[in-house]
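User: Sequence recovery, please. Input:
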């Protein structure tokens, strides 16, 4: 079987396509079962974040399996496969593992080294395990990826400093306004991103902070941490009129803030500007809001340019992080080859043991007169001869490179009639 990843991210696709492919967390189980029902996919994990949507799968057949994944993604986007193909990337086997390691470490993120993605990788894996679509092979791969992500963050400065998508959003707002001190901020969405922005707002000494969320209780809980106020989404329009900054990060499939909402908010404050930073994918704010006088809209397609200015230190750590991925990939490969060799080693030793016992049985009559101590010596002698004969081929098989492993396996199978 082949391990493959088929997907697209902020490097390969525009925002309007990424948001069409974004899968709401509540719909991931359904997506996993859709993949599991496809003919050539034995295991599957779906990773869908604001930067990417990817399918990781174990394929019974490589090309048909890739096609199954492509067709799934095209159905998610509501387009034909030809439209999607130019934006997709496909990696298999070691390249797929290396890509996953890089994703978990934040090396492939819009904000290099950002911390949110490690939790997203872990959650994607755990959901697939719960749904029964990630079995031993994919689970082992994702577990190793999480370990790699943690190791890189521990041993390098790739994640040093509080730079993530959520903190960058607040940093961009601060940069554009000069300061958030005393500014009125409305934050829409109280998930992981919203929590990150709340912390950053506290550090930026923002003025009044109102958190709006589908669950008012969660909004109140988050807002209380920084002395703000929590409300339900049904009250959002009533508070936007006094906001200097509107930050949004929900998982809603449709616009949470419409052009009409923005027009209404600006109608009573024609000379007071409004900055909107929308880090949701799909977008929370109708892009048409940018056409309302006095309104500036920053979304994920604009955020990368702002983030690049603060990432020089992290970029300098990329060679060290890539070296760690190389080391971990080698360890992953060795572990995989050892697991693949184990059944053959067992079969080889069982075959040798059958021959040893059969030969001893041939001499049963001659050995019957021996005392127990002598019989034990013969048993030990024959076992020792078998072990010494098998030691070298067993070690060669375990030490064989990925390129040579199949040849050694085939050779031993033929030589010992396994």
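Assistant: Recovered sequence (418 residues):
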């Amino acid at each position: 079987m082949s391990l493959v990843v088929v997907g697209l991210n902020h490097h390969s696709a525009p925002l309007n396509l990424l948001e069409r492919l974004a899968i709401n967390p509540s719909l991931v189980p359904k997506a996993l079962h859709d993949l599991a029902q496809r003919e050539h996919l034995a295991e599957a994990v779906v990773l869908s974040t604001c930067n990417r949507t990817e399918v990781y799968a174990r394929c019974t057949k490589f090309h048909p399996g890739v096609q199954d994944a492509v067709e799934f993604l095209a159905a998610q986007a509501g387009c034909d496969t030809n439209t999607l193909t130019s934006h997709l990337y496909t990696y298999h086997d070691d390249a797929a593992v290396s890509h996953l390691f890089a994703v978990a470490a934040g090396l492939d993120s819009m904000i290099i080294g950002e911390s949110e993605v490690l939790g997203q990788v872990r959650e994607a894996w755990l959901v697939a395990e719960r749904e029964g679509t990630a079995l031993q092979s994919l689970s082992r791969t994702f577990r190793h990826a999480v370990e790699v992500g943690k190791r890189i963050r521990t041993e390098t400065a790739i994640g040093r400093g509080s730079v993530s998508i959520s903190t960058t959003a607040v940093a961009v707002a601060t940069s554009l306004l000069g300061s958030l001190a005393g500014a009125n901020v409305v934050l829409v969405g109280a998930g992981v991103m919203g929590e990150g922005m709340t912390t950053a707002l506290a550090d930026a000494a923002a003025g009044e902070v109102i958190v709006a969320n589908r669950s008012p209780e969660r909004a109140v809980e988050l807002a209380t941490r920084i002395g703000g106020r929590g409300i339900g989404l049904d009250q959002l329009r009533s508070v936007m009129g006094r906001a200097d900054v509107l930050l949004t990060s929900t998982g809603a499939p449709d616009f949470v803030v419409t052009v009409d909402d923005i027009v209404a908010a600006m109608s009573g404050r024609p000379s007071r500007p409004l900055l909107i930073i929308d880090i949701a994918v799909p977008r929370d704010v109708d892009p048409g809001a940018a056409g309302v006088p006095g309104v500036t809209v920053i979304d994920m397609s604009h955020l990368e340019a702002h983030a690049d200015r603060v990432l020089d230190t992290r970029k300098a750590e990329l060679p060290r992080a890539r070296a760690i991925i190389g080391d971990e990939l080698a360890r992953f490969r060795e572990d995989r080859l050892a697991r693949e060799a184990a059944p053959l080693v067992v079969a080889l030793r069982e075959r040798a043991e059958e021959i040893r016992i059969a030969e001893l049985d041939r001499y049963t009559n001659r050995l019957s007169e021996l005392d127990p101590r002598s019989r034990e010596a013969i048993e030990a002698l024959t076992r020792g001869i078998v072990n010494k004969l098998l030691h070298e081929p067993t070690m060669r098989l375990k030490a064989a490179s990925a390129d040579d492993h199949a040849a050694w396996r085939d050779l031993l199978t033929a030589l010992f009639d396994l």
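The chain has three domains: 2-161, 165-309, 346-415.
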